[in-house]
Amino acid sequence: MNRDQILKLSSMPASSPSYPLPPFRFINREYMTVIYESDRDAIRAAVPEPLVPDPSNQVFFECIRMPDSSGFGDYTESGLVIPCHYEGTPCSFVTQMYLDDEAPIAGGREIWGFPKKLANPKLEVASDTLTATLDYAGQRVATGTMAYKHENHSRDPQKTVDAVRKLQVLLKLIPDVDGKPKIAQLVGLNITEVTVKGSWAGPARLHLIPHVNAPVADLPVRKVLGGLHFIADLTLPGGRVLLDYMKS
Known about the structure:
Blueprint: H1 3-7, E1 24-37, H2 40-46, E2 52-53, E3 58-69, E4 73-86, E5 89-99, H3 102-112, E6 116-118, E7 120-126, E8 129-136, E9 139-147, E10 151-152, H4 157-165, E11 168-175, E12 181-189, E13 192-202, E14 204-208, E15 223-236, E16 240-244
């Protein structure tokens, strides 16, 4: 391979790149989100400066089914998102993510800095209950349940669209070949081309179990506020650097 050929590669390994270049299109992406109040100090410890946690002390537990995603395939993802502000702009800081597919793990970490780890999340309907579970290393670390399609939000789809398009912020950390920091950035992105196909709310519950390598319970559940469930088509574009810690 010559230099030009190398620079055209989307990712490693050169013989079979793990993922193509963004944007990535998702069809029938299904979300279950349990909104809960957590511990103020635990939230502050998880959020990097200069982000400011929202004073509501809310955390979102998300489980997402992605049956049709260009370049990434069919997979399920779960994790924790913390509402914050960046320079006065409302945003969502993605603090933990767990999924079952190598391509979006590699691409998510290397392109945007999504904090992805290999695990076994599931989202399924069991009778009248939407159920999300997360297993890590053979151990259950989270169980979320939500009443199935209790309150229909189809009359106000724009509210769901606005929530999906809200600024997402990631902490991207990549070491140099000597192990010292090479990339340390706050990265921002906004989902585009959102079409909501259905949106519902309802009562929910969430149980988090301590685990050293999947520390979802480090943001403990103080009070569950409710659940959201929606299905949408959307596009994940490239991101942008909000702050370079190596230069500040």
